[in-house]
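User: I'm preparing a small set of examples for a lab meeting where we compare how different chains pack in three dimensions. I only have the primary sequence for this one, and I'd like the structure in token form so I can line it up with the others. Please keep the answer compact; I'll paste it straight into my notes.
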Amino acid sequence: MAVFEYIARDSAGSEFSGVYTDVESAKDLRQELSKMGYSLVKAQRHKAGGQRRSGRVKRADVVAFAFEFAGMYTAGLSIMRCLETLEEQSEKGAMKAVLKDVREHVETGSSLREAFERHRDTFSEFFLGMVEAGEKGGRLGETLQMAADYLEKQAELRNKVRSAFAYPIVVGVMCCLIVGALVIFVIPVFQKLYSQLHVPLPGPTLMLILVSEVVRHYWMFAVPIGGGLFFTVVRAALDAFKLKMPVFGKLNRMVTVSRFIRTFSMMAQAGVTVVEAIELAKRVADNHVMVKVAEDLQEEIIVGNSLSAPMAKHAIFPPMIVQLTAAGEEAGILPEMLAKGVEFLDSHIDRTIQSLLTKIEPVLSVLMGAIVGSILMGVYLPMFDYMGHVK
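Assistant: Understood. Below is the structure token output for the 391-residue chain.
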């Protein structure tokens, strides 16, 4: 039997709380209280060890759930029936546990948004926003379908970007491993040799020795300090660098803008105000530069200006997106125009990825060779000087 903490109301309208231990579900609890003349207001299952679930929910599972939920609800099934069916059909423990928790909270009086919000690590900000917009506007079936389409598009875009970055990441990891092995194991050996030979060390070699000393003896301090700097200072600078970096900057800008515009367009179609749609879109974009751009757009909208004019001031938006925004505002079909614009932008992303894949391999090979070669040169420079003195 499960343990429920509940709030109920008596016939006089007074609320009281309690704990019930002899029921299997909130539905049974509601029936038991009804027999005693009370009505259930809210209930929550008590779990001694906190909520647990086995494993992590994959993005593909969330996309499949969104399509199934949208289709079943649009077909006329109630929210509870949809959740019950999807929970029964779910084969994976993690997703099944999430759906069970969502169903139980909806069953005890929580809104669908509140139930999903308990699992922010599974359901994105966009999904939660679309559910809330659908509940408030009475268009839940439509917004669920839009959310499902959006999640599918985002998954496709993410896979394409991963395919473009897979090779650079593998090469980068290999380069880091090789450099780490040289710094930790090779340089100390040569350091002892040079100290015995009493030869003057050039600047590059001294720098390598310093790096080796820090990595080998002070890594326990360097790691937390580096992590703190990354999340406070470097993260914002890194977001800006990603949009301006030599090879991948253009691709990163297009991907960031695509996320922002697609989220804004769908939220606007769902009936959300422009300011609220921008607020959610900037969180989905997940880039410090775009956050500042979005805040500027919000300020301009609040004072009564159009959206296209401030967008034109920011170089991150392609001219085509700005032009479609202006045309959409003038014709009163802004969400539809932006939806067409983001489809064109995604096609451009596809072409850019294919072009990068053919160019990146030789560039990375040369770069990796240059890094490792520079380190080896710094290691052997004193040896060359010593051989010169011996002659």
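A couple of notes for your slides: The chain has 15 helices and three strands. Residues 362 and 368 are 10 Å apart (CA to CA).

User: Perfect, thanks.
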